[in-house]
Structure formats: structure tokens, C-alpha cells
Give the backbone structure.
Amino acid sequence: MALTYGFVFLLVGVGLGFLIARFTNPQFKQQKDLQKELEKSQYELEQYRQELVDHFASSAGMLDTLSKDFSKLYQHMAKTSSELMPNLPQQDNPFSKQIEDMSKASKKETAMTEEHHQPKDYANGATGLLKDEIKTTYKEKPQDATAS
């Protein structure tokens, strides 16, 4: 029995000694400080990454707006150049390509508005799609005897 008590006290003493040495050791405090600094750095890095993502998203929006405005300005200049200088030869007009593209686009738009056809994705008549019965609209191919 005394041997058991001695062994238990030895284990408790070793455990307490280990804990006291660990908490009073300056390296343990340094390790905790480094851990806190690492967590702080990781948090700051994540914030920086989020700011960078936000910056690029807003920059992309600004560039998109800028390109649309530039396109509108170019179209305006092309339109007004042909209206203000109708006798200017086409090779001297810097906007001649844009004028040609605009005329093709307007012709295409008028052709599309003149056509009042039913869209091609509509079916002719009822398809029975919403009914409970199953319709088979395809024919199965007969299997070739030589394919075996």
C-alpha cells in the first residue's frame, strides 16, 4: 500500500513540476506571444485580401462604365461627323468604319422589327407536356444483327 501511495505521489509531483516549469518558463510566454502575433497577422492578411478584392471589383465596374461612355462618345462623334460634313470623302473621315457599322446595325434592327414571325422555339399545337400521359415521339432504331 505504501508503495502505491509513493507511486501516486511521484506521478502527481512530476505532473505538478512539469506544469510549474512550463508556466514559469520564459519560452512558454514567448510561444504564446508568437501565437497571438501569428493570429493577428493572419487576420490582417485576410482583411488586406478582402480590401484587394473589393478594390478590383470597383475598378472593374469603373472600367466597364468608362468603356460604355467611350463607346457612346465614339458613336456620337461618328454620327455628328457624317451629319455636319456630308461631303467629306470617306477615306478622310476618321469615323467612317463606325458609320458603316452603325448603318448595318440600323438596317438589321429594322429588318428584325419588320418580321413578326412566331419564334422558332414554340411548338405547333399542343405538345401534351403538362399531361400525365407519356408520349413517345421518337422511333427506336432496330438493332443491327451484324453489330453483335
